[in-house]
Amino acid sequence: MNRNIYIIGLNHRTAPLDIREKFAFSQAALRDANMFSRESDIEEYLLVSTCNRVEIIFVSPEDSDPREQVISLWAEHCGQNPEELRQHVYIFEHSEAVTHLFKVASSMDSMVVGEPQILGQLKDSYKNGVEIGTTGTIINKLMHKAFSVAKRIRTETKIAQSAVSISYAAVELAKDIFDRLDRQKAMLLGTGEMAELAASHLLDSGVYSLTVTNRTYSNAVELAKRFQANAAPFSELFSHLAETDILITSTGAEQSILQAQDLRQIMKQRKHRPMFLIDIAVPRDVDPDANNLDNVYLYDIDDLKGVVEDNLSRRQEEAELAREIILEEVEKFRQWLKALNLTPTIVDLLQQGEQTAQKEVQKSLKKLGSAATPEVREAMETLANSMTKKLYHNPISFLKRRAKEEDSARHFISLARRMFDLDREDIPDDAHGFKKKNK
Hints:
Layout lengths: L2 E9 L5 H6 L4 H4 L13 E6 L3 E9 L5 H12 L3 H5 L3 E4 L1 H11 L11 H16 L4 H20 L9 H13 L6 E5 L3 H12 L4 E6 L2 H10 L3 E4 L3 H5 L4 E4 L10 H10 L5 E5 L16 E5 L4 H4 L7 H53 L5 H29 L6 H11 L20
Parallel strand pairs: 5-6, 5-8, 6-7, 8-9, 9-10
Antiparallel strand pairs: 1-3, 1-4, 2-3
Helix pairs in contact: 5-7, 5-14, 6-7, 7-14, 8-9, 14-15, 14-16
């Protein structure tokens, strides 16, 4: 039976930040291998949840369409209304789903074309899926192919040259606000990949000092040591914020860490000197109401779109080359998928031939009686196996050639299965337009 590949998701283009927050998967959900166990038509799946996108990649039998069930289960898990989710999701299927995934892995679908973060996030998602056992043959092959496509595009095009990330855009925005950073004190709240990139960009921009804090203090120490920065315990966050001009926060917390009333007190300690906060976490780490405070400049991930759009025009020519590579690789995967659909038929044909040959060998050996020496038995079995392979060689070669033709492949595979009765069909006497004569 053929299989369908689907991707259902929402991203920074189809849903604003507050919607993405509502439907983001929690860490518990990402580790729950039974999340879609009630949907029996889903044979394998993978969850991807980042700050800019939430996607479900899944495989189902050809004769099923579990898209609505997936949307309902997704919304149910998040405690939200499925109708609200439907207004923002996109759905890709078959080759379009494969094309979309390759674009995502190659950062062609990112807010910033060429940024490297999404590939690492996809690898983390895939590793998690393998560990909890939700992926299978098709998704495993699909993800490995996506990784190789991304690598090929970075090797054969200049799409990643001078590539920027959300963290880079955040630092660029800080430079616009303060003009120069060599007098500003910065703090990172969180130690993930985005924080690491932000640390690198801040130091490259000449920031006066950098402090790192995190709920797990050892992680803050490790990141600070890597960049020769300072580490601070999370319990001392508020006292350090009183001396911080630039805060970039990117934790995985499920609720806001900084409330507007907290920042009001901090601003009093700062004597209302300007404070620049960039919240690139999803869900957001900083209460949006903080933006109403005097001299507090709060930007979230959606606010960065204007900053990063300036980089897009310079990459359009390279993006076109990348699109050509993606189309080529999608076709290769499509051929692999068709060959996978053909494989069960080839296996069934060979098994049928071997079983038939063995039956005939046993009949012949029985007739030979005592003359059936071990040598004779071995020779007959070798002959039978050789004849089976030769007899089935042409039909199998024919099917392989037809498998490369989109329109005829399914027809000939179905015809071969019926011709050789591989599914043990009960064929009526008049199936071919005539009836058996009564003896």
